[in-house]
């Protein structure tokens, strides 16, 4: 079960868990052969294809250029960090001198305002997507349970859900931006406006799969278990906690994983369009920059976006396996 | 002990269908004494389960009603615990936790934590499930699941125990074993029980009275048979008992002569159930299914069957 070929990490784990490491190493390599061949063929086609595409910004980046740009981005990040450290050290020295001259002097530490690097942008995007996803889940799961338990409520809300579900984030974005500007007014804002805008846009778009799947899971609870609940005269809360939630967990997680995937896709688009900090802005800035390195750097971002999306889904799968009561179910 | 404990009076039920109301039960009357063990027997589709669900409060009678100790029954409740055919344990809870859910619900504020724990363990012990009480339903066999289902119902200390074909989904050997366990428990607790069954042997072996239902639609109580056999009953001894065989013959004659199932509806609706009834008929001569258990026990002794 854990040896399913879809799980990239399971062969690695199997080696450590096995009583016969030799045989597992062998089966590990056997399982690895096809994915490795797939990746190598892809790299080859990419390399040949890239050499034949000439754009105004030079030849399309192949695997080698992308590798070089990755190293370049890492160097840039480290350089920026070193600058930051140096900046704070200078301030501290200056303040120490001031205090030595005059112990009553007012000293200030100014924050470093350097340009965010690629990795800073990844961090911003991850924080935003998780915040938006959590907000959406906090709304969608309880709402899904209510809708699933209450048929009239479901009938009332279903047309609205179907109407808003297919709306693209780009359509929401101008409205969300204006509403956030109008309503989120404070002298000392805890979050940046751009963060709130991205978060709300992400939430609006990734709410629906969780909502619908939870509702379906809840309404599909077996009649037998509902009878048990009735005979025991379980209170509404006990009924929800002991019977509704556990039995709808598989469907709920199907929804959550779809939602997180959508959230990640929506976020990149929203950042790009609204100039909110994050990976989307990085891509847009590189595009506007138009140097000979830009396409390579954008390609690095594309791969990183894919990799992060994949990892987010794997993490959800791990959580699902943890909370699912049915350990025999094959989850992928 | 002789006063009426549970009373069904003129119970009718109609289900709305696109073609108009469908009358499933017509004028069902039944009086049950405290501590009495009643079996409801009849062909499939005759409304046995509907009667049980009305007593449980899961369905509402269209006309007439149910009185339990002089109080009207109009909603489900733990004083009328149900053992469902498909065990209906919560698959995400262990055997212990399943019983605990019921006990916490019924004895909240009446028993201390330690008392509740002892009570849960006592009930699991009654059904011989102490060894597997921390296993989840998917880790134990069908018979064991049904034992836990019975323990859960018993733990509610119900006034009436309702059993909807409790052993219907089990194989013959497991079924016999569970019937013995149930008789043992019944000797100790003397619960009032209504049990639905398809199995003539089961009905005669376990019951004080067998209520035979006519075919639906508009099913009602056909005949009631008093089973006047001394307890504790032993299936091996009873196999040769003329009185026991007389009771069996009476039930069989009701089911297959007076209430013969119309061929077309029987064959079309539920062929599996029909086959099962046919097997019951054959028991007289070929000693199949439960009959085979009796012969096995006479040769190998009770212990071996229990071990199985």
Give me the secondary-structure topology.
The complex is a heterodimer of chains A (332) and B (308).
Chain A (H helix, E strand, L loop, with lengths): L9 H8 L3 H31 L2 E2 L2 E2 L3 H39 L16 H32 L1 H14 L4 H15 L9 H27 L3 H9 L4 H39 L4 H11 L4 H30 L9
Antiparallel strand pairs in A: 1-2
Chain B lengths: L3 E14 L2 E14 L3 E5 L6 H9 L6 E6 L2 E2 L7 E4 L11 H13 L5 H14 L15 H14 L4 E5 L7 H18 L2 E6 L2 H7 L2 E5 L7 E6 L8 H5 L2 H17 L4 H7 L1 H16 L3 H11 L1 H6 L1
Which features does this protein show?
heterodimer; A: 332 residues; mainly alpha; two-stranded antiparallel sheet; 77% helix; 1% strand; B: 308 residues; alpha/beta; 4-stranded antiparallel sheet; 10 strands; disordered C terminus
Structure report:
The complex is a heterodimer of chains A (332) and B (308). By secondary structure, chain A is mostly helical. Chain A has 11 helices and 2 strands, in the order H-H-E-E-H-H-H-H-H-H-H-H-H. Chain A has helices at 10-17, 21-51, 63-101, 118-149, 151-164, 169-183, 193-219, 223-231, 236-274, 279-289, 294-323, and strands at 54-55, 58-59. Chain A is globular, with a radius of gyration of 26 Å. In chain B, 44% of the residues lie in helices and 22% in strands. Chain B has helices at 48-56, 95-107, 113-126, 142-155, 172-189, 200-206, 235-239, 242-258, 263-269, 271-286, 290-300, 302-307; strands spanning 4-17, 20-33, 37-41, 63-68, 71-72, 80-83, 160-164, 192-197, 209-213, 221-226. A 6-stranded mixed beta sheet of chain B has the order 6-7-8-3-9-10, with helices on both faces. In chain B, strands 2-1-4-5 form a 4-stranded antiparallel beta sheet, with helices on one face. In chain B, a hairpin with a 2-residue loop joins strand 4 and strand 5. In chain B, helix 2 (95-107) crosses helix 3, helix 2 runs parallel beside helix 4 (142-155) and helix 3 (113-126) packs across helix 4 (142-155). The longest helix of chain B has 18 residues, at 172-189. The radius of gyration of chain B is 19 Å and the shape is globular. The interface between A and B is medium-sized, with 17 and 24 residues.
